Structure formats: structure tokens, C-alpha cells
Amino acid sequence: MLSALLLAHSAQAAVVGRTVPATALTESRVAGQPEWLAYLARSKALMATDKATFFAEKPNGPAPVPTAYSAPAKTMPLSRDPAWYASAEARHVADVIVSFQTPAGGWSKSSPRDAGLRRPGQFYLLGRTPTPGDSNWGWVGTFDNDATTTEMAFLARVAAQAPGAEGDAYRKSFLRGLDYVFNAQFPTGGWPQVYPLMGGYHDAITYNDDAIGSITRLLADVARGQGDYAFVPPALRERARQAEARAIECILATQVRVEGRPTVWGQQHDPLTLAPVGARNYEPASLASAESAGMLVYLMSIESPSPQVVAAIEAGAAWFKASALRDKAWQRSAEGSALVDKPGAPPLWARYYSLSTGLPIFGDRDLSIHDDVSEISVERRNGYSWFNTGSQRALDEYRTWSARSKP
């Protein structure tokens, strides 16, 4: 059904809108709301401390700057045999992690954690060394690209293999990271992409790249207080449980309703209104398939889910079934990637779906939004993941969850 509608719309391709950038979280937006004003004051104070601490450092000679990008999973693996986390190699990675923790308690992203320890004057973020007058102070602490949550999980794993005093530094760093997570949580229950806040869409509730999913899963593990997280004090376990509960409320509240019917989630949502918002020029406010698949998988992992959570799962699964493109494939090409007919191909989902029509939409760098992917620039067509088959994981998990949950 959706494939037929898509074909009809493609025959009359059009610019269907323009991406509206997200609004930063500011004092003027939260005037008269003490809880929000306190949140912003805390964010500003932590950023000021981050800056002051860094600029007060006196490096001995030029500080080294890491030059190689690295995905967290490569230098902070979480799937090794437990004994490996007691090795000198794992301890070195943990030491590097501790050395790069910001004063606020978080970590930057995309930086290797298996190289040298951070030296005084070396910036927390890959490839940058700001000056005191530099206004571009961002990504210093973030949940993007699995940052912060991966560092914390790795520290907990190493600490579990160092139960004595030799593991105290790792446990202390983990607990500082946990405090960072608590500080960063919005009063409405979600988390920004970057904290302390840096403005723009980075201030939005961020489902992109499974940021909130990774935080909530970590909090659930901490709340259980088992295995790697048995060292966390009971009071902090309870705080983690409460933070996860507030996050679930936020996830349920941000599930988008179209004509009164619950569907899925946006890539990011305004922290105050909870409505989906745009991010980069080519990322419009929309329903986001990959991020929503991650949210459904997380909700299905909740033990003893409430009726509200069950209803959200059922609605999300129904949306994925109805929104799949059949007998289509995304064919990559240097001349211009394209959506092509391919009978028998696995179900395919567009990255973004219109909040009004429910049909796939595609953004370009000039802020224009199109209903036909072939109408956007070749550079954006080839440089972004406009379609995915990975959302099938949500339906696969749903089948298992449904069989387990229903008599």
C-alpha cells in the first residue's frame, strides 16, 4: 500500500516544505519555571567549570592532540571475556578513560581510548585546542555516538575485576559519570545530545543514534545493582531507577500522534513542548524509523511493563508494519543513489516520514524538503542513509515479545 502511494507521489515530485531549525533552550523560553531555570543555571555553572579547569592547566610543552577517529566499540569493547578486563591492556584503556573525563563528569566522542593518557593542556575533544576567547565550546561532554555511556560501562566492567583499592579510581570515575547523567536529565525526563548545553538542536531531547536508549539501558543496569554495577550504593541505585522511570514517561509522552493515533518518535524533540524538531539542514522534523526501532526494542526490554508501555509498543509495531516499503531497494551509486524496484527484497524503511502525510520525506542542505529522494542533490543522496532495513529488528523483537507476553 505504502509503495503504491510512494509511486503516485513520485510521479508528481515536489518540494513539500522547509526544515525549521530547532530552538535552543534559553532563560527566556523557561521564564517563570523554577525547575527549568535551575537546570539552565546548573548547565552554565558546569560549563564555566569545564572551561576554567582546562584553561588553568599548564602543559609542559605542546600538548599532544589525537588525530585518529575511533568508534567507541573499537577501543572500549564490552563483549570480551570477563578475565580480559583484569588485563593490563584493559586497565590502560580504563586509565585513559579516567584521564579524559571532563570536570562536569562526561566524555567527548569519537576519540580513541587506547592511546596515551591525557596530558595537562590537551583538549578533551578530538582534533581541537580552543583558546580563552574561543566561543565554540561544544561536544566536550556528550551522549552522541555512544559517548559517556560506553566509557561508563567499560569502567564498571574493569572495576568488577578490581574489587580492591586498585579499582577505586574506576569506581569513582563511574560515579562522577552517573552524577553527570543525573545532572543532564531534563525536568521532562529526556536528555540533550550535548551537556553542558551548547545551543541549537543539540539542546533537544535526542533519540538520534540511540542516545536516550543507551542512557536508559545503563540506568536500568545500575538500578538492578547486579554484576558490574553491584558496587553502586543503594541510594544511587534508587536515583537511577527514578531517572529511568522519568525517561519512560518522556518516551511515552513524545510518541507522536497523527490524527489521534499513536505512531512512533522523531529523531529529536523539543524539551519543553515535546514536539518533533529539525536538526541539521537536511534533517526535518518527522517520524524517524531507525531511532523509533531503537525505542521499541528498549520498551520491550522493560520487565513488567505498564499498560501504557504495552500500548506504546503495540502502536509502534503497527506503524512499522504499515510503513514498510515492499519490493524496493536502495541502490548506491557514485552518479546518484536511487530507490529501485526489486521484487522479493527485504522490507525497507525510509529514514524520515512526514508528520502530516505519513509518506517518506527527504531533506537537502538548502533546507528544502522533498517527497522524492531523486530530487535532492547528489551529494546528499550519496552522503546520508535515507533508507534502512535495520528497522526490521523491531518487528523481529516484537514477535518474540508478543509471544512471551500474551497467553
Automatic annotation (TrEMBL):
Q: Which UniProt keywords apply?
A: Lyase
Q: Which residues form a coiled coil?
A: none
Q: Which Gene3D superfamilies match?
A: 1.50.10.20
Enzyme Commission designation: 4.2.2.2
Q: Tell me, what is one Gene Ontology molecular-function annotation carried by this entry?
A: pectate lyase activity
Pfam families to which the protein is assigned, alphabetical:
Pec_lyase (PF09492)
Q: What is the designated name of this protein?
A: Pectate lyase
Please give the organism. Pelomonas dachongensis
